[in-house]
Amino acid sequence: MSTEFDREINLRGVIGSGIALAAVALVVSLLMWWLLRGFSSFDEKRDVRLTPIETANPQQPPPEPRLQIAPNDDMKEMQEKENRELTQPAWVDRQQGIVRVPIDLAMEVMISKGLSPVQSASPSKPSPPPEGQR
Predict the structure, then answer these.
(1) pLDDT at residue number 114
(2) How crowded is the C-beta side of 118, counted as CA atoms within 13 Å?
(3) Which partner for 98 in 42, 49, 90, 93 could form a disulfide, CB atoms 3.0-4.6 Å apart?
């Protein structure tokens, strides 16, 4: 009851390739384990050992005022502040009528008005001196 498709598959070759692939993966894994273990022992030999005095008296935190106690909390707070500034309108200077506009609204306004042609950043050519001053 073998079909034509079954005759085309070399089952012995497929199984042999799978075993060879598993063996190579095992050898590579063992080599990587051995290499990382060697790096670890190399690092331990090169590390500066603490003296008994340093071990008995660990370094104390710096004195007050500490500028940054919780860096992760400070980063979250900074990101929240930036998001508020980018998404919520607010007065920058009420006297001069300067308002901070949400970035999405500002982009819509710029798209609806269109952008003016960009002027060249290079300095303009100086005009030639009058005829009498040469």
Answers:
(1) 80
(2) 3
(3) 93
